[in-house]
Amino acid sequence: MDQSAANRYRGDFVAWTGVCGFIGEGGGGAPIFPHSHYAIQLVIGAPPGLRVQFGRHGEWQSCAAALVPSRATHSIDVSGCDMSVVLFIEPETPEGKALAARLQGRLELLEPEAVAVGVKRLERAWRVESSYDAVKAACMQLVQDVSRTAPRAPSDPRVLAAVEYIRQRVDQAVTLSEVAKAASLSPGRFRHLFVEETGMPLKTYLLWRRLLHVWTLLMRGETLSTAAHAAGFADSAHLSRTARTMFGLPPSALQVTGPLSARLRSPQHHRG
Predict the structure, then answer these.
(1) What's the rounded Cα separation, in Å, for the pair 98 and 148?
(2) Region of 244 on the Ramachandran plot (φ > 0 left; ψ -120 to 50 alpha; else beta)
(3) What local confidence, expressed as pLDDT, does residue 6 receive?
(4) Over the stretch 15-50, which tens digit does the pLDDT of each residue have?
(5) 200-213, pLDDT tens digit by residue?
(6) pLDDT digits (tens, 9 = 90+) for 99-148
(7) In whole angstroms, what is the distance from residue 150 CA to residue 31 CA?
(8) Is the peptide bond preceding residue 267 cis, with omega within 30 degrees of 0?
(9) Global pTM?
(10) 55-81 b/e with 16+ CB inside 10 Å = b?
(11) Could you give the percent of the chain with pLDDT greater than 90?
(12) What is the CA radius of gyration of the chain?
């Protein structure tokens, strides 16, 4: 996406375990450059005006929504959309596994009817309610509907203790042995239990937490450099390289200036 397109983008970031993404408007001008990333991507345009290119030189296809498999080169163009939603789903999650088995490395175009109800709910949560929790719930429901999976969250108290240990050290490098000790388990047993409960290897989860912390800080108005250091990255260039691998775009390409971030930055929110 060129800088002029990025400057016209107005959006917000949302995340939960194994999934994160952006909801916004604008970004017209040029399509995102062809790229690939580890996550499975669900992209939605509202009203239907989305265009997707599968492969570096594939034909552009118009659709209401699309599922892009992990590591597949692709590009998207949201210039014809009033609102766009791009969600990144980790392949190890239950939703990711279900989608990977279904896609088999192929692009899947979704009919408007498949996402219409969810998009309407999401648009209201974002534009009218301006509620992060409501937007997150609507995004979670969209992923569950599209992947045909039931909601699932870690429940084992040992894993929850490990997650809290990681959360408090998001700016630090932590090892498998340290996290396993916090969970009162051997490293081998913890590794297996963590994947079983979260759907993600510990190394992937640690990277997710650091990236999510960056975007949370950007939503609050911090600079890219400050957010990068606060999340344990060497500098903003290190962060940008990591974000390109995970999302296909550096943080600077998508400005978080939507209603959710505006509320987070408001004096009323800080006084509350």
Answers:
(1) 8
(2) alpha
(3) 44
(4) 888 888 899 987 666 788 888 887 899 999 988 789
(5) 889 888 887 888 88
(6) 999 999 999 999 999 999 999 999 999 999 999 999 999 999 999 999 99
(7) 34
(8) no
(9) 0.81
(10) eeeeeeeebbbbbbbbebbbbbbbbeb
(11) 50
(12) 18
User: Beta-strand (E) ranges in 71-218?
Assistant: 74-77, 83-89, 108-110
Q: Are 71 and 115 in contact (CB under 8 A)?
A: no
Question: Across the strands, what pairs with 128?
Answer: none
Domains of the chain by residue range = 3-147, 157-268
**Mean per-residue pLDDT, 214-239:** 89
Distance separating alpha carbons of residues 268 and 272, to the nearest angstrom: 6
CATH code: domain 3-147 is 2.60.120.10
Provide the greatest CA pair distance for the chain.
53
- State both tokens at 97: 């596994």
Q: Which structure tokens are listed for 15?
A: 């995340």
Mean pLDDT of the chain: 87
Hey, which CATH number is domain 157-268, 2.60.40.10, 3.20.20.70, 1.10.10.60, 3.30.200.20?
1.10.10.60
Q: Which residue has the tokens 């490990």?
A: 162
Read off the amino acid at residue 258. G
C-alpha pair distances (Å), 8 with each of 4, 219, 225, 250:
7, 17, 22, 16
Cα separation values, 270 from 37, 88, 210, Å: 36, 30, 23
Strands of 19-25's sheet, edge to edge?
10-16, 19-25, 83-89, 40-46, 65-68, 108-110
